[in-house]
Design brief:
The chain is α/β, with parallel strands linked by helices and about 325 residues long. The chain has 8 helices and 19 strands. A 5-stranded parallel β-sheet has the order 4-3-2-8-19, with helices on one face. It has a 5-stranded parallel β-sheet with strand order 10-17-11-12-13, with helices on one face. A 4-stranded mixed β-sheet has the order 1-7-6-5. Keywords: Flavoprotein, Oxidoreductase. This is YpdA family putative bacillithiol disulfide reductase.
């Protein structure tokens, strides 16, 4: 027998937690299903990451977020969201992955790797950090290639290629360089990304200008070998020695899960899911989207600070 829950929230990140707190305030019973640890995507961020936003813009449920500096770090964010979840006794099942959502006549059946649930309403707040945008080139599956940068010490004295020119790539390039790595950036565009954190952008541009970090602009990686890598530049193919590749190529939502659920996606490259921006309800009655997943491939549109409001919008519509 499927367990009866009025509201299932899929995703235990900051926005999923915000939805749970909004449900609590309205007296609506709910359950969060999270396939990893609490705020799993934040846990997978680089160890030394500093947020672009100030701490008050990352707050949820009206609970103050106090950090040592104006812009909090990853450890501070993990501590904050953990404290929120524990102090508010949020109902959450960790390490339980939602595998399917099917209509059952009176609502939906959610099947996970552990249980089955029946719910009238579903909120999908699954983010986008689990599926990297692949390069689709030979050698991408070699052990030396990663789409998740964690700790710069690992790359000390090594020859490292960093692909990309936005925040993740710039942080990886600067941090590994300062730990003694020989860093080469491969950048498809002709400049460092415009959305790079304003206090970091001059740093990376100066390191490139002085050639402390080598950068190939208007270039792409075409082949990765055990000890080398091929870069297609405007002047032709360049082969350089290489120990590790950090492919900071971005991530995408789990479109296959949305499609299997029955949510309509746009036919263009963005693959925007269908939803009502006033209620966040999708083309499926009672199924809502919250957070970054709303943007499709445009993962730079929604953040914690501007999608927190999705929680009150959704719960307000449900309780009506």
């Amino acid at each position: 027998m499927a367990k009866q829950v009025p509201l299932i929230i899929i995703g235990g990140g900051p926005i999923g937690l915000a939805c749970a707190l909004a449900a609590q305030r309205q007296g609506l019973d709910y359950l969060i299903l999270e396939k990893g640890c609490l705020v799993n995507s934040l846990y997978r961020y680089p160890l030394n990451m500093t947020f672009f936003s100030t701490s008050e813009r990352l707050e949820i449920g009206g609970i103050p977020f106090v950090s040592n500096n104006a812009k909090p770090t990853r450890p501070e964010a993990l501590e904050y969201y953990r404290r929120v979840a524990l102090s508010k006794e949020v109902k959450i099942h960790l390490f339980e992955k939602a595998e399917s959502i099917k209509a059952n006549g009176e609502g939906y059946t959610v099947v996970t790797n552990k249980n089955s649930y029946s719910a009238k309403n579903i909120i999908i707040a699954t983010g986008f950090y689990d599926i990297p945008n692949l390069l689709n080139i030979p050698g991408e599956n070699l052990p030396k290639v990663t789409h998740y940068y964690k700790d710069p010490h690992f790359y000390a004295t090594q020859k490292v290629i960093v692909i990309g020119a936005n925040n993740s790539a710039v942080d990886a390039a600067l941090e590994t360089y300062r730990k003694g790595a020989d860093v080469t950036m491969v950048i498809r565009e002709g400049e460092i990304g415009k959305r790079v954190k304003y206090w970091v952008k001059p740093d990376i541009e100066n390191r490139v200008k002085e050639c402390s970090i080598k950068a190939y602009f208007h270039s792409v990686l075409t082949n990765i070998h055990e000890t080398e890598a091929d870069i297609l530049t405007p002047e032709g193919v360049v082969t350089i020695p290489n120990d590790f590749v950090i492919a900071a190529t971005g991530y995408q939502p789990d479109f296959s899960f949305l499609e299997r659920t029955g949510i309509t996606l746009s036919e263009d490259a963005v693959r925007s899911p269908a939803y009502n921006p006033e209620t966040m309800e999708t083309n499926l009655p009672g199924v809502y989207l919250a957070g970054v997943v709303c943007g499709g491939m445009n993962t730079h549109i929604w953040f914690i600070e501007n999608s927190r409001e999705h929680a009150d919008r959704i719960i307000g519509h449900i309780v009506k």
